[in-house]
Design a protein that fits this description.
- This protein is mainly α.
- The longest helix has 17 residues.
């Protein structure tokens, strides 16, 4: 389930990045990868101009409400999510 970005505090580019990660495990930017892998220190101290840098709370809120728990929360979960979706794609070919 995804929420339309007009109902979130997320910039559209961040919404699309999260959507692409959840649906197809498209690799994310380093900033979003830090947030999704629970490396908040890395996300906060990263010198970035990412559109969501000031919206970390909104990223986490979106993921809590709309993303499968297995798709984020640690590097291991992110790796497993990516592998799972890659395997799914190979099975359909």
């Amino acid at each position: 389930m995804k929420m339309h970005p007009k109902h979130t505090q997320l910039p559209m580019s961040t919404f699309m990045e999260l959507h692409n990660w959840i649906s197809d495990a498209v690799p994310t930017t380093a900033f979003i990868r830090c947030v999704l892998s629970n490396d908040l220190r890395g996300a906060v101290t990263m010198n970035t101009h990412h559109a969501a840098h000031n919206h970390i709370g909104a990223v986490v809120e979106y993921m809590v409400k709309y993303a499968p728990a297995k798709s984020w929360g640690s590097r291991r979960r992110m790796r497993e999510w990516s592998e799972r979706l890659q395997n799914r794609l190979w099975e359909h070919k």
